Every structure is written in structure tokens, then in C-alpha cells.
User: Fold this.
Amino acid sequence: MHQVERGSQLAIATDPARFERALSMPAAAESAAREVRQVYPDDHAVSLFFDWIGKHRLGRKRLLDTMLAATYFAHVSSHCRIMSD
Assistant:
């Protein structure tokens, strides 16, 4: 499984709009506990975060999203494209 923030996996897996047979919260939590590898922001992620905040003129409503994206980018791939509305 890809490295995904645990709460996101739970929200997606239990969403009946995304899946005909969405998981119950207990089943999704059990799956997340087994399959998700936690990652934490390192120096590279924090540097990316501040770079992106300035470069893209992001405001306070995008701080958490930007840190999550920077952490993902720093740990998973240097060849991915981050898109946001």
C-alpha cells in the first residue's frame, strides 16, 4: 500500500460515495493499523513546505495540506505532481 496519512485512508475506505461496499469504521481502522506505514516530516519536507508556501502564495487554509504533500513528496517520490484547487 502507498504511504497515506491514516485519517485519509479511513475517510476514503468508509465513504459509500466512493465504494459500493464501503468498509465499516472498525474494519477500516483494522486495515489501516496493518497496512499503513507512518512517515514524518524531515528536513527535506520542511524545506519543501516553506518553499511551496512562498512560491505558490498559499495561505493559512493550506498549511496542513501543504505539509502533508511535502512529507509525501520527500518520502515517496521526487517525480510526482501535486495538484490542489
About this structure: Residues 6-35 form one domain. The CA atoms of residues 8 and 15 lie 11 Å apart.
